[in-house]
Amino acid sequence: DYHEEHFTYFISWLAQLIQQPHILPHTCIIIISEEGTGKDLFLEFINECIGEKYTYKTDSIESVCGKFNSMLGGRLLINFNETNPVESRNRQDNIKNLITANKVKLESKYKDPVKSDNFARFMFFSNRLFAFPVEKGSRRPVIMQSSTKYLKENYGAKENSAHFNGLYKVFHDERYQRAFLESYDISNFKPNDFTKSKLHETLEENSYSPISAYLSQLVMFYHDQKEVKLATSEALTAFTEYARANNSKFDYSQTKFNVELENTFNVKKVKSCGKMFFIFNIQALKSLLEKEYKVNFSDDEKEVTTKIKCEDV
Q1: 148-172 pLDDT, tens per residue?
Q2: Angle, helices 174-182/4-19, rounded to nearest 10 degrees
Q3: In what order do the strands lie in the sheet with 268-272?
Q4: Are 280 and 258 a contacting pair, CB within 8 Å?
Q5: Could you report the per-residue pLDDT of 83-129, keeping only the tens digit for each?
Q6: CA 248/CA 209 separation, integer angstroms
Q7: How far apart, in whole angstroms, are the C-alpha atoms of residue 214 and residue 295?
């Protein structure tokens, strides 16, 4: 997002992977971005630079942190694409260990586990703010936010196409790949010495999604109903009012808010009479908040700190 220090860190982190693959940085890269910023194109470039057999791309943390994790062996870069917040929270300790472990236990189905040297770096991509759990004082995750400058809606469709076509040509040019592999100076690079982004600091201050707190209030308010129907725009307005009342620093667009509710909290979205609505299954939502977000719903706790406009189903 045009932060020079973060750009330098990011390039140095990648160059260190290539020039010193045997030295783990003990940090992982987390990039929060909108759809269409070029994540897949970037990964194609890295794959061609270091060889596809040394990289692994997945949308399942379980495939790396679970019991059968043989694909971790021999990899230099593991990319988690569209990271699931619930899964990353459940596997937080495993991820922390893998970032710093010199040795890992690898296991395939029907085979005995073996110990292996660990050379893998981890990179997480997501369009969800709370894709990766961040604790106060955390030093392993390095969280950055990508620019939206070149998205079609901001830059123009024709200009967007020209921009990414140009990048595609450069990224697949062996001269540029060799320059990237060999020429970047990392003599002063210290992986654990980085300035946290504003997003990183904000995520630390709000260790869980403010949306989960808002939904907890909704569940308490409508605890005696099965389902609640709410226009997507009204839901965002109600959440924004709640966030401001509770000093949250997050400012969600309608698109990002919809993505969070649909993909993170499994809220169904429907179209009716030309208007988009959320259908909140109160019991299912309550169960998810209790299990995944450790929300404690007291029987006598019925107060709600924000007004939520809803149309009952």
Answers
A1: 999 999 999 999 999 999 999 999 9
A2: 90
A3: 268-272, 275-281, 227-231, 311-312
A4: no
A5: 776 677 677 788 888 899 999 989 888 888 899 999 999 999 988 77
A6: 10
A7: 11
